[in-house]
Amino acid sequence: MFFHIGENVAQRYPAQRSQKSAEILVSFALDRMGRVLSASIVKGSGDNVFDEAALAMLKRADPVPQPPPMIADEGLSFTVPVIFRVKGKS
Fewer CB in 10 Å around end: N or C, the chain? Predict the structure, then answer.
């Protein structure tokens, strides 16, 4: 299943890290209405500013689009990468 939080709306690059890139692995759980029940860092970037920005992104995106009804309740936990990249660099 593809799950899109809306990176253009919720993801904000930390201003004080404008020349760095980072990848954070976050885990979160949703309720049936798309509200974020919990969120945590599974694998941090080594930079607390980026890690906190990844968690803040989930808070800003709350509520996310409602999950399809065919997904079982126990299937409402996700672990996804959050990637911050300097524009123009890959």
Answer: C
